[in-house]
Amino acid sequence: MALNAEESGRLTALLGERAEQITQRWTERVAESLRGRLSHAELRRQFQELHRALISTGQQGILDLHAEHAGELRAVLAELSRGRARQGFSATETAVSVFALKDVVLELLETAGGERTLRDYVAFSSLVDDMGLFTFDSYVRTRESLIADQAEQLLELSTPVVKLWEGVVAVPLVGTLDSARAQVVMERLLQTLVDTGSPYAIIDITGVPAVDTQVAQHILKTVVAARLMGADCIISGIRPQIAQTIVALGIEFGDIATKASLADALRHVLRLSGVETARRQSRREA
Questions:
Q1: How far apart (Å, rounded) are the C-alpha atoms in residues 165 and 236?
Q2: CA-CA distance, 164 to 269, in Å (whole number)?
Q3: Number of CB atoms found within 10 A of residue 179's CB
Q4: What percent of the chain has pLDDT over 90?
Q5: What is the C-alpha to C-alpha distance for residues 252 and 217, in angstroms, rounded to an integer?
Q6: Rounded distance, CA 135 to CA 82, Å?
Q7: Do residues 249 and 216 lie in contact, with contact meaning Cβ atoms separated by under 8 Å?
Q8: Each residue of 112-123: b (16+ CB within 10 Å) or e?
Q9: Using CA atoms, how far apart are residues 131 and 138, in angstroms rounded to an integer?
Q10: Percent of the chain scored above 70 by pLDDT?
Q11: What are the DSSP calls for the chain, one per residue?
């Protein structure tokens, strides 16, 4: 709810006249609730910026968070929310930092007295409520963005592509393989094949708890993509339980080589490499 012009004028004047007292009391109240997790100096700096933005908004027109001239105020609130979200504060702790301004202003209005005290406080309280909700919304968006970034980083870390031998790379998969992760696996494997020029790739599923039709399709697509890049793939980690499941589901790996362990797969690749080397040497001698 926006304040009217008269209320905005009185409250802007009060905020300007008592600037030092307001930021001091505001800092003290919030510091108590945060229990030392932010220094007084940092809190004071943040509230001074927010205090200046409030005065600037009031001087340009009616105190209304959603007004066009309140852009600076919204920007300061959003920056406060982003900072608290990155520092690990809760949404409640972030919003309380704004709501604490109500108590500070009430103290000043009670000291000033006058018949308009209650009406001014109710009007200003509504403005602070809007500010708190805006802060909460900005905090949630920032946290969602941070969580999405962390999930992407974890996804990349959970799908490493390692070089086992000259010309041999491996993708040790651990956990469930869904569509999003399968896409990351394919992209990282293909890029590694390009970077290293490796003719062989081993996809190890020892750490995959179960193989169903969907997981098998993801693996097969990765193998086909690697073949299009000129690399042969070997699937390792086919434990007895997984082998039984694959047979029961009727999943066909076709001419794709499969091995029980990563060591078996590596030995298989080295034998293939040795045969090819011998053949090349024979052709050169001939």
A1: 16
A2: 11
A3: 9
A4: 29
A5: 10
A6: 9
A7: yes
A8: eeeeeeeebbeb
A9: 10
A10: 91
A11: ----HHHHHHHHHHHHHTHHHHHHHHHHHHHHHHTTSS-HHHHHHHHHHHHHHHHHHHHHSS--TTSGGGHHHHHHHHHHHHHHHHTT--HHHHHHHHHHHHHHHHHHHHHH--TTHHHHHHHHHHHHHHHHHHHHHHHHHHHHHHHHHHHHHHHHHTS--EEEETTEEEEEEES---HHHHHHHHHHHHHHHHHH--SEEEEEEEE-S---HHHHHHHHHHHHHHHHTT-EEEEE---HHHHHHHHHHT---TT-EEESSHHHHHHHHHHHHHHHHHHHHHHHH-
pLDDT in tens, 236-270: 988 888 888 888 888 888 888 889 899 999 999 98
90-99 mean pLDDT:
90
Residues 70 and 129: their CA atoms lie apart, in Å, by 15
105 contacts: CB under 8 Å, gap ≥ 6: 11, 14, 22, 121, 124
**Residue 100 in tokens:** 């604490």
Q: How far apart are CA 88 and CA 82, in angstroms?
A: 10
Per the CB < 8 A criterion, the answer to whether 65 and 99 are in contact is no
| Residue of 95, 108, 131 lying closest to 3 (CA atoms) | 131
- Residue 247 token pair: 């047979």
> Which residue is listed with tokens 């932010």?
38
Task: Determine how β-strand 168-174 pairs with β-strand 200-207.
Answer: parallel
